[in-house]
Amino acid sequence: MERTGIITMKGNPLTLLGNEIKAGDKAPDFTALKNDMSPFSLSDLKGKVVIISAMPSVDTPVCELQTTIFNQKAGENPEISVVTISVDLPFALNRFCANEGIESAVTLSDHRDLDFGSKYGFNIKELRLLARGVVVIDKEGTIKHLEVVSEVTDQPDYDKALEVAQSLI
């Protein structure tokens, strides 16, 4: 499925590929790679409140900030699992986490199959990157909050995502 005009980058419209999800849907399981190249599936976090923080690349200032903020907030509440996902290679994510002291959030690479991007509708066709956004999933696996940031260079609404996640504990 293609959706154009949902997001822009510096004002230029981009096309999103993949399924269109919404709050109330069951969160699709997906597989991506952890920093050590081992597989990770959303089902690994079954029964937990999950924040999925999707971003284009950790090598940009907004993505760096997004990863850092969610990591800090995740460390404050062990009942919320934060998963940060991009199409960066696992090696780049591992280097970033080591350099920035990222310990609480799980960082994942969707570079191989774009499984998350396809199942959640976050694939940017023109760039083969993920759109910036946040998905909050409750303990039963239902999407309770979804934000696809309309301008890729803008930050997500951290407070709203964290507020929803806190309310699910």
Concise overview:
Residues 21-169 form the Thioredoxin domain. The chain contains four helices and eleven strands, in the order βββββαβαβαββββα.
Describe the structure.
By secondary structure, this protein is of the alpha+beta class. It has one domain: Glutaredoxin (3-Layer(aba) Sandwich), CATH 3.40.30. Helices cover 25% and strands 31% of the residues. The protein has four helices and eleven strands; from the N terminus they run βββββαβαβαββββα. It has helices at residues 61-76, 90-100, 115-120, 158-167; strands at residues 2-9, 12-17, 31-33, 39-41, 49-54, 80-86, 106-109, 123-124, 129-130, 133-137, 143-148. The strands form three sheets. A five-stranded mixed β-sheet has the order 7-6-5-10-11. Strands 1-2-8-9 form a four-stranded antiparallel β-sheet. It has a two-stranded antiparallel ribbon with strand order 3-4. β10 (133-137) and β11 form a beta hairpin. The protein starts with a strand and ends with a helix. Its EC number is 1.11.1.24. This is Thiol peroxidase. GO terms for molecular function: thioredoxin peroxidase activity.
